[in-house]
Amino acid sequence: GLNSASAEFTLYYRTLFWGELIVLGIFSGVWFGWLMRNGRAIQGQDCPPAEEVRRIAILWSLIGALSVSIYMEASFWPNWDGSWHQTMVRDTALTPTHIPMFYFFFPLSVILAIGTYIYGRFYIPSLYGKDKGFPWSFFLLISACALECMAVVANEWGHSLWISEEIFSVPFHWPFVIYGWLASGMFAVWGETILRLYEVEKNAEEASPESSLEPNMVAD
């Protein structure tokens, strides 16, 4: 079933390809819609410190899921892809290694990055609210995932019409390196949320009754 013109290839690999696109499309539509509907419903409501800490923990979980997706697409699959193309002649862009890497994990990372920002935008307004502007951290992170998808086009063009050999240092592979640099925006997200946790703790301590009694206790 490795011949792209065969019925077996259509049955197994093209079915997987279309299945991935359909699943990602449904997932992104449902998730984005749920985030925005619930997020608009809680806009303007007070957010207690404990609730804000919980929401930051959820944001960290989303960044963790995004990190796993990025690691999968930039670690395991490129190695398998390179070894595959060194031994098998590609007669289509939809090779068995491209289908999971380029058409599932790459767009999944974009979906997770955008969804994570939507979550922060509505659920953690102290950091990512409308009045705060668009954060550089998410700009870098979303740009990284989007650039990775656009680099797929350059990659397929380069291998089809320029250099068919799977050499990782070829010029049309260079954007993948830039993507890795931009993906460091996830560390900026973690950094700014950690600083916010310190602020939440400090505000909670200042507002607690015990802290207001401390000066009198010292005076006594």
Walk me through the structure:
The protein has 220 residues and is mainly α. Helices cover 79% and strands 0% of the residues. The protein has 8 helices and no strands. Helix 1 packs parallel to helix 3 and helix 3 runs antiparallel to helix 5 (136-161). The longest helix is centred in the N-terminal third of the chain and has 39 residues, at 49-87. The termini are far apart. The mean pLDDT is 83.
Question: Could you write a compact summary of the structure shown?
Answer:
The chain is mainly α and 220 residues long. The protein has helices at 7-41, 49-87, 98-123, 125-128, 136-161, 174-182, 185-207, 209-219. Helix content is 79%, strand content 0%.
Task: List the keywords.
0% strand, 220 residues, single chain, elongated, mainly alpha
Work out the helix count: 8
* Major pleated sheet: none
Percent helix, as a range, is over 70%
Q: Which radius of gyration do the C-alpha atoms yield? A: 23 Å
- What's the overall average pLDDT, rounded? 83
Unreliable stretches (pLDDT < 50, length at least 5) are none
Order of helices and strands: HHHHHHHH
Architecture blueprint of SSEs:
Layout: H1 7-41, H2 49-87, H3 98-123, H4 125-128, H5 136-161, H6 174-182, H7 185-207, H8 209-219
